[in-house]
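Appendix B. Raw example, untouched.
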Amino acid sequence: MYVLALVVGLVYHVTAKFTVRDLSSYGTALYRTIDPRVDELIRNLDPSSGIQPWQLGNLVGSDMALPIPKLNNALAGNSSSYFRWPNATVIYEMNGSFNSTELLFIYGAMREFEKYTCVRFKKRTTEEAYVSIDNSQYGCWADVGRGRGKTRVHLQPGCANSLTTPVHELMHSLGFHHEHNRLDRDNYIEVIYDHMIPDPSVYFNFQLVDETETTNFSVPYDIGSIMHYLNNSFSVKPEKLITLEPLVRWNSTFGQGPTLTKYDALLINIMYCGAPEPTEALPVPHEWIPAEPLKKPKTSVPLTTTLRSVQVKKTTAYMKMSNEAKQQMEDNLKKILSLKRG
């Protein structure tokens, strides 16, 4: 039996009224604590399997420490919102006992953001809000967006053996969720629930975002995004049965590549750096496209100041599914959840 907090959820609206929602069908997927067994799974992960260590967790979407109702693609809000890092500067503190190889990849991940975006990382002195990078618990996971105090990025042994997972988790800390939860997801990939591990909490990892709280800044869906699942994620037979099928031409390895793609960097630069949203539709990628190094301004003006002087559109555009398609998807998901729990 689920705890009371999972049975009834309270959702606060701008009308200052509370609405009661029955969240019991979400079970332990709503807000989970990390399973200690994740430690062994990550330590014993075969690098040749193609599975990323962050996918072995049991939190929301495998690696996000948040309740389901907060699920977004990129947290909507202006640059002064508390969950954005002011001046595109992430304050961090190393609180784990990392070895030299792990530190090389963690700091290397920070340099990836600094190479392709205006985001910078600064060691904490007395700042109240900061990212704590730790490895004292289990799993590879992170809080989403800047918190009012400590924002956690957790990288247990086995999580920081390459750039991929540290970049992925730091992307979460900037305020981004997984690519495959976007509203327009079903226009680009098909989710095959019949091939998945029969667990409602697994199915819920593929729930779509809330259109009132999310934006993709008019940037196209990117199967190669650092935030995208692999095509055999949660499969009952990963070597034979895929769970994500592309509906568009895709010529590269399905799912996240080694670091930021061109569109990953563009999303960050729009969200943090004052880069304008596309006014015309950009091409949907058919392969993994690496990010391009951010060009430094010709003047001596600081980089972040220069980028923030760019005129930003005042309205937010959404590339989303129709209401009918979204409702059908959610109805199908509820049926699956009901059957598996019954």
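End of appendix B.
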